[in-house]
Amino acid sequence: MAGENRKAVVLVSGGVDSTTCLAIAKREGFEVFALSFNYGQRHRAEIEAAKKVAKAFGVKEHLVLDVPLGAIGGSALTGGIEVPKDVPVEQMQARIPVTYVPARNTVFLSLALAWGETLNAADIFIGVNALDYSGYPDCRPEYIESFEKTANLALKECVEGRMRIRIHTPLIKMTKAQIITRGVELGVDFSMTHSCYDPDPVGRACGRCDSCILRKKGFAEAGIPDPTQYAP
Amino acid sequence: MAGENRKAVVLVSGGVDSTTCLAIAKREGFEVFALSFNYGQRHRAEIEAAKKVAKAFGVKEHLVLDVPLGAIGGSALTGGIEVPKDVPVEQMQARIPVTYVPARNTVFLSLALAWGETLNAADIFIGVNALDYSGYPDCRPEYIESFEKTANLALKECVEGRMRIRIHTPLIKMTKAQIITRGVELGVDFSMTHSCYDPDPVGRACGRCDSCILRKKGFAEAGIPDPTQYAP
Description:
11% strand, Rossmann fold, five-stranded parallel β-sheet, globular, homodimer, 38% helix, alpha/beta
């Protein structure tokens, strides 16, 4: 059944990972329904990036949902806590950082399920990776596998045997450099993407948050020029 | 650890089940944080009921979140599909009805996790029941157990060993009559509650949707007068 259904919901944040993930879903032949979230993140510039990317890849539809994670708080990305700067990569992964957003991927994937079920899209793509990442627990393979099991128990279409949800994580074992290299191969223009957690008022990247550091390192290791506009 | 933490997030829709569930959480000694959702449901009267109930039980806080399930559609409760009327109870449970909302409990529980983690509340109460219910897959014990496992893999506080999420479903094996009887024992004033999927403009229950039928049957079987205001 899953093979016949060629619609996929792809979570698109507008960063390097989700953009490459979108390119991979397209390359695999899926009709792509892009899903982005306005969740009160301080780096809302990423939504504009997501729109550009979705358009560039000719997605079937791009839905941007408002999700009230800001009303819940508990994160440097949505609340008053400062975004850490200049943290060495080894330290990022030693413990879960303050930019962690409680239950973010669970909330996002749940909404992807809801949309997927109405679209009859059994395939959901999410650009998590467990190598060059920020140490978030909801990016690990064991979490994704468990969510997939839960999804197949939750949905009417699954329980009635017409659909089997598959959560695709094509980047999960890739380094940032590999993700960038693969993205370039698939025609991604990374100048459209946005990674910085703490951009300046005109949207330029800080160059110093975890997300910027991992991005810079990825371009350097891939030997590909970094098209990011950094604040001076 | 779980025993020391006496805060609970209780999902409160303002209906019979969630109100009894709230009363049980209070009776078990939890400090209750009530969580309701404005998800584009046509029976938004339930949010006013939830507010009354939360106040009557002296919850610590009541958060009402806007969730964009209406933007996603796929349900008689949020979309243009008509709410079925006069369906016999046996038929309701024979197949999942059009009032099913895609991934609703997964979305709601995910947001409860997010709030729970910021509050340091490891206990989440949800008034699902698998006997006198509408046949929704995300009310079954196997779904709830799977969600609980996923939650414990998703959250920073769980992965770092400071919290273990427990999803409480005290009503899961109760009939509607038992739920009503238990609610009355615990001091619930059911005249405050709202169950109807399709109330009239002044908020009176239709008496004919699945939710009204199950509610009426419950009061009748419990031998307790039904305080519901039905439309003439």
